[in-house]
Amino acid sequence: MLGYVKGKARQPVSQDGGFPSGIRIVLNRSIQVLEEKNNHYIESSFSHSISQKDWRITGHIISIFPGPTKITIRPNPSFSPKVPDMICLRRLSTLAPITVRGLIRCNKIALRNTSGMSSGYNQANIVILHKALADDFEKFCKANSGPLPLLYRSAPGEWKCPPLSKDSDIRTDCLQYRKYENGVFSGNLNSLEGYTEQMRDMVTFYLGCSFSFENAVQQHGIPVRNVEQQCNVSMYRTAVPCFGMGSFSCNLVVTMRPVPQDKLNTVVKITHPMKECHGAPVHIGCPGFLGIKDLQKTDYGDPVQLHPGDIPVFWACGVTGAEAVSSCKSSLAFTHSPGCMFISDIKIEKTASTQVSETPKVLPISSNPPHYSLVSQQTAEQIGELENAIAVDPGSRGIKHLLTKDELLKSSLSLSHAKSILITTGFPTHFQHQPPEETDGHPGAIAIVAMLQALGKQVAIVTDERAIELNKAIFGGAIDQGILKHNVPLLHYKEGNADSALNFLCENGDPAKPRFDHLVAIERSGRASDGNYYNARKINIKHLVDPIDNLFLAAQNIEGITTTGIGDGGNELGMGKVKEAVKKHITNGDTIACDIAADFAIVAGVSNWGGYAVACALYLLNNCEIHERYLRKGVGFPRFTEENYLASSLPAVKKEENLLSLLVAQGVRSGKTGNLAMEVDGLPFYNTHSEMIQRLLAITM
């Protein structure tokens, strides 16, 4: 037994377990009992039989009587005994939360963050505000539950938090605090005991923390780099605004953890159900999408070094609460110092949501710059069904050889993230007629535009200069019919010099300022390797085609622009991604194969079907809880209330029939037959195209 006899010169008590009757033993002023066995601290109760000589007890004052008996702890604030030396992180990771809090109170932890401490237990961010601001801040937390999952709101002047800990004092139990005066950070504090009177009118908010899931992540073989590097986690202010409430308005703060690429799916699946410690990541990949310019320049915490093969993964962060405190400009407020969390007694497995019904899936949607997205497994499977549905080959052209799995899913994910999209269509296969366009292409393009408009995105059309008037009539008619909600800018591209494409795509020709996030070509004639443009019959129609292909080529070298090609024969813009298969399996493929590759090549039996499928996929994604939360970065409220509005923007049989009638009225002919009739690629609207639309809707709805 290790301790000291009161009134003597810290004379060690005998370690054989024998104690004279009535001796009072004074231990340190922590308010807990510890047992040490095999060099590990184990929490004990406040009353315990004493019989084992390998116990170390720390507490206040105890009375010991002969034999195995119970001990009684009584406060002795005036006594300040010797306590153990500073404890290393490895040992701290095994200590119970009540023990770590006691060590923090005694200022016996030299580390400046609690990452890795009391492994497996929930940690919490802290915000302490005047009670007059408490209701608005609670609303702010609920409106931004990703960064600010509310674990407990105290009463004014309440130092304890019964739901989270048996014995705690928020004035002393964080490693360090930050003080704010009129919204301005005015210094760090090791204790808030000096502000006890002011805090009687203040409310403490305990908010979930990502440190809580580190143990679960490590148990699945995923490294926690900041723990490895013995530093704080990296934290950054973003350009993402939170949903404001009352006087609280700020941008999201995120943590960044490097994760090996092959562990991305695992780390997302682990953290997704842990809603009380921020849940799934809000961004994976290039930090620039969040407005973070340099990972080495943290706003809070330390820069954590990535290993080869690591991808930066960002979680919403409770330090957002500190930014909110600054915004409200309260005369006095406190927060924990970033990384110096409150450690609760709640095990992390008890906080994971038991109502999670969907499994998340991570997919890459861009390599330049690296960008990944999230979707539920169920939604991914539905979009896979859409992809399979449109892959039927009514013309027996051999398109099955061009198919690449998940191109529809990845393209639609990228479009879902995009803010500004440029679409091109128009295949002048009927060079002997005016207009030379075919009925495939425009309906699919308009279906995509309708859904993108419903999602609030900016959309423009680029087409051949000779076809501007035709496109005005078609898109204007789509507005008159109620298919489109807004006018669509109609652009044409002419090449004057080597920088024409760059100047068209970027503000002032600056590659760092692209005007568009995504380019889509649907049933758009594509340039072959010899520089010509061919229809399926190997007839050169170059004289009718403007070099819009060069926009797709230029986009390959502009960071932040992704491209999609939708086609049904391999000679369409973007199908260069599968040109070897086109040359091998498609009639006249050696000549007609498009040489220009898109990032994603969606292959369909009829290109319009590909456009319908993209619209349906966008609908599914934006009604997927996992993807929708990822899009809004965990701030604000779900957009599910817009479901009916989105549904009205889906393709429908009657809408597509009316649109095809409009095309025929403009003299646009069927691609394969040249008939001026209600058909596309020689296939009648009823019951070929109408049945495909119904099938896609059945999968979607």
Description of the structure:
- This protein has 701 residues and is α+β, with helices and mostly antiparallel strands.
- The chain contains 21 helices and 27 strands.
- The strands form six sheets. Strands 6, 7, 8, 9, 10, 16 and 17 form a seven-stranded antiparallel β-sheet that branches. A seven-stranded antiparallel β-sheet has the order 14-11-12-15-13-19-18. Strands 22-21-20-23-24-25 form a six-stranded parallel β-sheet, covered by helices on one side.
- Helix 9 (377-389) packs antiparallel against helix 21, helix 10 crosses helix 17 (607-622) and helix 17 runs parallel beside helix 21.
- The chain is elongated and about 90 Å long.
Number of strands: 27
Quote the average pLDDT.
88
CATH level-4 homologous superfamily of the largest domain:
TON_0340
Q: What is the CATH topology assignment of the largest domain? A: inorganic pyrophosphatase (n-terminal core)
Summarize the structure.
The protein has 701 residues and is an alpha+beta fold. It contains 21 helices and 27 strands.
